[in-house]
Specification:
Strand content: 25-35%
Largest sheet: 7 strands, mixed
Number of strands: 15
Helix content: 25-40%
Order of helices and strands: EHEEHEEEEHHEHEHEHEHEHEHHEHE
Shape: globular
Length: about 325
């Protein structure tokens, strides 16, 4: 079978190589899946660079989430077992962790539903306890992680403010349903949030960016606000001023969604049930901006690494269009 493999760490476009390799063999409790669609995530770029919290042995295949097909023809969502990630024609995955694909979504959309939307749901509901009528500030609102949070925030009854970089991404954020879009390249985030909220600030901040985004967020956080730290796509990990959190009375909460798979797998399945219902209603629908053939996977991962993509880029190993 064909699979993209990384033999040395570096930039995805430089270290990912498309090779012929043996089809993987399932171990105890695992199943073999045909990959229908593999969603590209920022962690895939970090894996290539050797900067992710998990460092699989070299060589490995990136690709942390897929929509796959079982031997009996069922469509499922899976997180393949590294070092054999999803940018391949076949993967093995833990059978107990498989989730059924919502009928409302095609293969590419389904591949993008899993990690990003689970992260958004746990971040907004379990960690931040977002309430109807509150104001949610989402950084990188036109990206894969941010777009999911925008849709979930609107579904929860929040007023959603999206922060983006550039007019193209601003248009996408508006189409996603943001009540207000702030272009960080030309507007003052802090001033715009305070003006939109009558000086109160945002009740919840969803931050997959870190760096300057975090610094701006805590300057416009509301009384008893919650900052959800999801990731550091900017490459800069902020150092919170705990004295500032104290005097302004806000919370900083971290979210590592992967821990729920081992600490509370029942909650993951309950969340998927909720997301399936929202997909059936058309309330959430992953924004798939590109569907790439297998040969273009490295280019797609590099675009996500560079921050130039919008929504989700999905690889279709079989060359299909579903």
């Amino acid at each position: 079978m064909q699979a993209w493999r990384v033999h040395r760490n570096g930039e995805p476009s430089e270290v990912m190589e498309l090779e012929e390799t043996d089809r993987p063999t399932p171990g105890d409790g695992q199943v073999l899946l045909k990959v229908l669609a593999a969603d590209i995530n920022f962690p895939d770029a970090l894996l290539c660079r050797g900067q992710y919290q998990v460092r699989p042995p070299l060589p490995f295949t990136p690709g942390v989430e897929i929509c796959g097909e079982t031997q009996d023809g069922r469509r499922v969502l899976a997180t393949p077992a590294l070092p054999g990630g999803g940018f391949a024609e076949y993967v093995v995955a833990d059978e107990a962790a498989l989730l059924p694909v919502p009928d409302a979504l095609d293969d590419a959309e389904a591949a993008a539903l899993h990690i990003g939307y689970q992260t958004g749901w746990f971040g907004l509901h379990r960690r931040a306890r977002l309430q109807p009528g509150e104001t949610l500030l989402v950084h990188a609102a036109a990206g894969g992680v941010g777009s999911a949070a925008v849709q979930l925030g609107k579904a929860a009854g929040a007023t959603v403010i999206g922060v983006v970089g550039g007019p193209e991404k601003a248009a996408i954020a508006r189409d996603l349903g943001c009540d207000l879009v702030i272009d960080r390249r030309s507007e003052d985030i802090v001033a715009a949030v305070k003006e939109a909220t009558g000086g109160r600030g945002a009740d919840v901040v969803y931050d997959p960016v870190g760096g300057d985004a975090y610094a701006k967020s805590v300057k416009c956080i509301a009384f008893e606000g919650r900052v959800v730290v999801v990731g550091f796509a900017s490459g800069a990990i902020p150092t919170p001023g705990l004295n500032h959190a104290l005097v302004k009375n806000y919370s900083i909460v971290g979210l590592h969604w992967g821990l729920y798979n081992t600490k509370d797998p029942a909650a993951v399945r309950a969340c998927h049930h909720e997301l399936t219902g929202l997909a059936a209603q058309g309330v959430v629908k992953p924004l798939v901006s590109e569907r790439l053939p297998m040969a273009d996977a490295a280019r797609g991962v590099q675009r996500v690494a560079d921050g130039t993509s919008t929504g989700r880029i999905v690889v279709l190993p079989a060359g299909g269009t579903r």
